[in-house]
Specification:
Length: 218
């Protein structure tokens, strides 16, 4: 962690669901200081994408129970996601703009709540799309590739992954079919969904701008 920053307290953010055809897009932020850093390390918190779903749920439940005030989650369920994406596309913008808005929202809310002005983001775009959207210019933001090696970003990745898994499961229950994770081998599930619920309902469970949509509706 010391190769990224030397902060004593800071916010880490990460997202989940960006590459999944079904389910929400989630961005989570976690505030870390010396006290909770030791607790997080002792719990074995690490990159949520590299541990089992059951472990993700267990760690997330523990963080929510003991450090609820340190956590902010912002998510877009598919219906809202698709509407926002269509609006951004008309403006010549893209998914990175949506992600930046969610990261900024989480950072500013946590910064105001916890009184810190340092944040580390797991970098998701070549250009800096986050800083231009900041309202509070006194927040120092670092964007780092592979930032999950930082304990705050790792914690955020666990929270984001947990929220994504719960989001896709809630949609699966609502529409009475198991929606698969990921972006590959999901076409058949999409076709099954359309057969049961109709093409218009697809926007309620899937990210329509994926190429998969064309195959699903073909």
């Amino acid at each position: 962690m010391n190769d990224i920053h030397d902060w004593n307290e800071w916010i880490g953010t990460d997202e989940a669901g960006k590459g999944d055809y079904f389910g929400p897009l989630v961005v989570a932020g976690v505030y870390v200081n010396a006290e909770c850093q030791d607790d997080f390390l002792e719990m074995g918190i690490t990159d949520g994408k590299k541990i089992s779903n059951s472990r993700v749920h267990k760690l997330a439940d523990w963080m929510w129970k003991h450090y609820e005030q340190h956590i902010i989650v912002s998510q877009k369920m598919p219906q809202e996601y698709n509407s926002l994406y269509e609006t951004l596309k008309k403006r010549g913008q893209n998914l990175n703009t949506m992600l930046a808005k969610l990261h900024v929202k989480v950072i500013q809310m946590l910064a105001n709540r916890m009184g810190t002005n340092c944040a580390l983001v797991d970098k998701f775009a070549h250009n800096d799309v986050i800083t231009p959207q900041l309202v509070q210019r006194d927040i120092e933001i670092k964007q780092e590739t592979g930032a999950e090696r930082d304990i705050a970003v790792a914690a955020a990745s666990v929270i984001a992954r947990d929220a994504f898994l719960k989001g896709i499961e809630s949609l699966s229950q609502k529409y009475e079919m198991q929606l698969p994770r990921g972006a590959y081998q999901v076409t058949e599930a999409g076709k099954e969904f359309v057969k049961k619920h109709g093409g218009k309902a697809l926007r309620n469970v899937a990210k329509l701008h994926f190429r998969t949509t064309g195959n699903v509706l073909a």
